[in-house]
Each structure stands twice: as C-alpha cells, then as structure tokens.
Design goal:
single chain; about 300 residues; alpha+beta; two-stranded antiparallel sheet; 14 strands; about 40% helix
C-alpha cells in the first residue's frame, strides 16, 4: 500500500514519559498538604481511558506491560507515533525490560493492512497503536502513557532550563532554532534542549552520541523535578502535563507500579529488535525485523511476564 503520511524525524519523548510517571510516584511519599493534593489533581486530569475501556485496578505483585508513546501533534494535524517503547515489569522476579520499537517497522494492523507502526496513531489513535503492538508481540497491554513532542520543550522551560556537559561542539538549524552548541557545560532552554537531544549527523558517535545526549537531558530534567525547588513550580509543571500528557494510569496505579517495581526500574534491561531497512515493493522504506529476532524478543517478553 502507499504511505498515507509523510516521514518525519523521530522524537525522544518516550524517555520523558517514563521519568514523569516515576516523578509523580516519588512525590507521593515526599509531599503533603496542598502539594500532595496538586499532584493528585494533576494525575487525575491527564487520566484518559481508551475507547470503550473500563480501567481495571492493577493486580498486586503481578507482571504488567505499559506502552509509552511519543507523538508529533500539531494544529489541524493529528500526527503520528514517532516514538514507541514497551515497558514490561515483573515485581515477583524484580525484573523490568524496555523495548524501543523502530518507528519505520512494518507491521500488520488489526484490519490486516500493512504499514509503518508510527502511522497507526494517525489511523486510529492510541487504541490502534496499542492493539497493533499487542498483535505484533502476542501480549496484553493494559496501560499506556502518551506525550506530545512539545511537552519536552515546555517541561524543560517549566523547570527553568537544564545544564548539560556537551562532549563536542556542533551546530543546529531547523525551522524553529539556529544555535551553536559549545563544548563543555551549557545551560539550555526547552527548545535548545530539544535540538541538543535530536542532533545526530554531526556527532562522531552517530546515533550512540545522540542517545548519550538524550540521557543527559533526561537526567537533568529528573534532577530538577526531584529537587527541593520543584514544589514552587508545581503550577507550571501541572500545566505542562495537562496540555501534553494523557494516560490510563491512575494515581493509585502509578504509585503501585513504582512501589512494586522499584528494584526492576534500577536494573532496567533493554531489548533490541534486529533487522534491516529497505524500500519494499510499494516504493516505501520500511524497517523489517528479522524472524529470528522477533521470535527471540517474543520469547523474552513472555518469559518476563510469566507469574511464579
């Protein structure tokens, strides 16, 4: 079939989604009074069940999957799921895994049509993306969290920017920002942090270098959110979350996830899909996961989620 959507650059927002969920939960045990109430109100405001879904409580000490979705939504454009990450937790074994699903990976959607997985969001929203991942890996995904790309920019600005140690100087130029990034410690606004985390072509380490910078931004945001000055910025942070985040993970479920899987989070193991990319018969470039890698990944996911 012909691609119905133009290709766009992938975003890194799924990293921030997981951080936000963790921060909400960590704050539960460290705040009281009005601050606690504000956090709970914010969590409730971004609660968005899937169509036709009755949210079920999280069974105690049971394995569970959470799908993190980063989207590039703009005015009059629903966008696409440019970052998709599957988190799997098993509190019984104290293990957790993450699987970053290539945005250009060819999949079969529930209707039987083949397309890139990042197009599923434009076709049928979060529900179709979740159902496609469930079908692809033969698993159940009861929970999701979604963030719009601009949420990263606004979040960094809400905490008054972040400071990172840039390993090598480079230039960034797109429709919203033209900037020279100097080597060494630099302070970044939200838009500058977005450019810093997205650059790949000028990095001597290529995509590995970009991943290092993405982690730097995430860690810097996390430090700010967990810092003593965060409570004074709750209004701004809450506004960012309300405007850019949605999830069917309620406040109580988020708290339970963090409490039961704290050990797993600390030892989070990354899974990887191997394969190759090329132009298929329809003239569209796809990433094709190898059959061996798909089977190994499914086996690992199923083993992860097996109850004792």
């Amino acid at each position: 079939m012909k691609s119905r959507i133009d290709k766009r650059k992938p975003s890194i927002v799924w990293r921030v989604i997981s951080a936000i969920l963790l921060v909400i939960v960590l704050l539960v045990s460290t705040t009281t009074g009005l601050a606690f109430l504000k956090i709970q109100q914010t969590a409730n405001s971004i609660l968005t069940p899937l169509d036709g879904e009755n949210i079920q409580p999280l069974a105690s000490m049971k394995p569970v999957n959470v799908l993190l979705i980063g989207v590039d939504e703009r005015k009059n454009d629903k966008g696409r799921a440019d970052a998709i990450m599957l988190l799997s937790f098993n509190p019984q074994t104290k293990k957790a895994t993450s699987l970053s699903i290539p945005r250009d990976m060819q999949v079969t959607i529930p209707t039987g049509e083949k397309t890139k997985i990042n197009h599923t969001y434009a076709y049928g929203g979060v529900k179709e993306t979740v159902e496609t991942v469930e079908q692809t890996f033969d698993i159940a995904i009861p929970y999701y969290a979604k963030i719009n790309m601009d949420g990263l920019i606004e979040l960094v600005d809400a905490v008054d920017g972040v400071t990172v140690d840039n390993p090598s100087a480079f230039s960034w130029n797109d429709r919203r920002l033209q900037k020279e990034y100097e080597k060494g410690k630099i302070h970044l606004t939200g838009l500058e942090a977005s450019g810093y985390a997205r650059m790949r072509k000028q990095d001597p380490l290529g995509d590995m270098g970009r991943q290092i910078r993405q982690r730097q931004v995430l860690e810097a945001v996390g430090e700010k959110l967990a810092g003593p000055g965060m409570l004074t910025k709750m209004e701004d942070i809450a506004s960012v979350m309300k405007n850019n985040f949605s999830t069917n993970i309620g406040f109580d479920v988020a708290a339970q996830l963090a409490q039961e899987n704290q050990a797993g989070f600390k030892r989070l193991k990354s899974l990887k899909l191997d394969g190759e990319g090329y132009i298929a018969n329809d003239g569209i470039w796809y990433f094709f996961a190898s059959e061996e890698s798909m089977q190994q990944t499914k086996k690992k996911l199923h083993a992860m989620l097996a109850s004792s």
